[in-house]
Amino acid sequence: MKTIFHSAISRGQADHGWLNAKHSFSFASWYNPDRIHFGALRVLNDDIVAPGMGFGSHPHDNMEIITIPMNGSIRHQDSIGNSSEITTGEIQVMSAGTEVRHSEFNPDHNQPLHLFQIWIFPNKRGIEPRYDQFRIDQHKMTDQFLQLVSPDPADEGSWIHQNAWIHMAKPSKGRVMTYSMKDHANGVYLMVVEGKIKIGEQLLEQKDALGVWDTNMVSFETLENSKILAIEVPMIFDIH
User: For 69-89, what is each residue's pLDDT tens digit?
Assistant: First the structure.
């Protein structure tokens, strides 16, 4: 088993006043040659957006984009005809494909918005853009992994154009849990959203992350009530 540890404080940070962003991988003005991506996982941004503020219309192409509001709501509008609000407990999935322009705003003028945005390299270029939004049953995350995203449209949650899976779990203190790889050639990037866990001898606290590969499974012990984000991606991949 191979691992790479990324502490919370080692992430890039950009405070724009209206946006306080933490970058697990090189993004915008923050560049770290050792933190470009983890396999097909290109971006994991931890953003806090001020009340009433947001991102104006901007383009994306050839990227699978997953947005998870942790607290608050996002107002989304795009060039392929979607206009919606994604609230806490919902997930947004967008395949940018040939190109999508969209805007994202915090519609609440009193409370900040906290969200995770994940970008995953697709396995094919130039696809027709698509949009999906769905609500998750958060009770299904208690002491087990709930699947949010997979490569299969028939699976639970939504799907993307990549041999990748995203899960979340809310393990209780004292639990021992195991994440099993869906594909043994993949790796998994585990972030502690809340709480504290231990993987082998490695302690992970809030917003610490561990990338793990060359193994079939990863087991961890929860030292306090926690919330875990697991992003499984190919470590070697081609874009056709």
Answer: 999 999 999 999 999 999 999
DSSP per-residue letters across the chain: -EEEEE-GGGSEEEE-SSEEEEESS-BTTB--TT-S-BTTEEEEEEEEE-TT-EEEEEEE-S-EEEEEEEESEEEEEETTS-EEEEETTEEEEEE-TT-EEEEEE---SSS-EEEEEEEE--SSSSPPPEEEEEE--GGGGBTSEEEEEES-TTSSSEE-SSS-EEEEEBPPTT-EEEEEPSSTTEEEEEEEEEEEEEETTEEE-TT-EEEEESSSEEEEEEEEEEEEEEEEEESS----
Give the confidence band of 50 by pLDDT, cuts at 50, 70, 90. Answer: very high
Question: Residue 238's pLDDT is what?
Answer: 85
CATH number, residue 209:
2.60.120.10
User: Residue 138 sits in which domain range?
Assistant: 2-234
Q: What is the pTM of this model?
A: 0.97
pLDDT over 90 at 164, yes or no: yes
- Check residue 237 and give its pLDDT: 87
